[in-house]
Amino acid sequence: MQEVRASRGQGQSPSGIGTLDLPWVMLLMYVLAALELTCLFMQFSIMPYLSRRLGLDSVAFGYQQTIFGVLQLLGGPVFGRFADQRGARAAFTLSFLASSALYLLLAAACSPALPGVALLFASRLPGALMHTLPAAQMVITDLSAPEKRPAALGRLGLCFGVGVIFGSLLGGTLSSTCGIQCPVIVALVVNLLGAILSFTCIPTSTKGASAHAQAALPGKPEASLFDLKAITCLLLQPGVLPVFLVKVICGFPSGLFMVMFSLISMDFFQLEAAQAGYLMSFFGVLQMVFQGLVIGWLSGHFSEGALLRASVLVFSVVGLAMALMANVFHFCLLMPGLVFSLCALNVVTDSMLTKAVSASDTGTMLGLCASVQPLTRTLGPTLGGLLYHSFGVPVFGHVQFAVNFLVLLVLWRQPMPPKMDKAW
């Protein structure tokens, strides 16, 4: 502790990051996250067309989507543990190199001289290590004070919005003007650049920059990356499991709807591909505004427990309205409430969960949080398709209302865990 105090007295954080350098490290996190998400949505925009070009039907396309989701689901907690043990520089470099491998395999799949289908499925494998966003969340968590953490994490919503808007736009534009291989090559170059920036500009570790960092116990052996018991034990710490369950349960119904949205936009809303793209751009703009600006402002005026209850309440109201909507105009009216709920739920639960564990475990905790979305992508196509074909679009609203209303009753009757901002 004396060494820590001495280092701070000299204007240097314990990790060796200069105090004046901290804002630049935070800014670099946002830039790298925006670049990675832009490339990811560029990939999403061309994958259906590449699959069709290679002769795959919708079933085979669903298989590769499921493979990608399962790999991210399994890789998230392990990657988070790797980030905790090896540091931010190694985590970011590994994530960008994995992304580069994915885009390299995709570019090879575009070549008529190579076995495109096999390469397309092989390109899903590096997805297990593609977790730039959780790595950025870990660094921002390490470098931000607990009371400022929701706003700092919320600003990553700006990065997500940039990725949705510019990734979809660039993917469509480049593939139509320069060929389907062009956006893949651009993404490959950008991710290689991200790997170089990560290795040269990101500090080795950011754990010591947090006032909550814990010194390693002398003589204690380092746990394995694949120690599932250590990973799952995080969920059993006080105040963690209830918040994590709220995150999973409340977000799952809206996740089902979003998984089926491309089909709903064609069949129910009767939208053309370009119109569906405009609607997704509107979604991205709303996410930038709510997660980048509104959630940060609200977190300074209301407690995290109040914001969590508010997100569940709005989820319930939006679900009830979704059950009654009849056209795309109705959905546009509901979209601000849906986006607010999604952003508030994700930001607040991530902040609460990282406060509930020690600073040495924030990467693993965020890796577990990052597995929630792949879980939805894995189960969503089968379950969502069954519900949609059996009961139609209103069933998604009914499920969302029922699930969130029950959770809201539990939250209202049971006090939230104590404020998780104590020093670790």
H/E element sequence: HHHHHHHHHHHHHHHHHH
Class by alpha and beta content: mainly alpha
- The share of residues in extended strands comes to under 5%
State the assembly state of the protein chains.
single chain
Structure summary, number of beta strands: 0
Between the first and last Cα atoms, what is the distance in angstroms?
13 Å
Low-pLDDT runs of 5+ residues are 1-16, 209-220, 418-424
What profile does the largest beta sheet have?
Answer: none
Helix content: over 70%
- What's the alpha carbon Rg, rounded to whole Å? 21 Å
Counting H and I runs of at least 4 residues, what is the number of helices?
18
- Mean of all residue-level pLDDT scores: 81
Shape: globular
Description:
- The chain is an all-alpha fold and 424 residues long.
- Helix content is 75%, strand content 0%.
- It is built from 18 helices and no strands.
- The protein has helices at residues 2-9, 22-53, 58-86, 88-109, 116-122, 132-143, 149-154, 156-178, 181-201, 228-233, 240-259, 261-267, 273-299, 304-322, 328-356, 362-370, 372-391, 394-413.
- The longest helix is centred in the first third of the chain and has 32 residues, at 22-53.
- It is globular.
- The two termini are 13 Å apart.
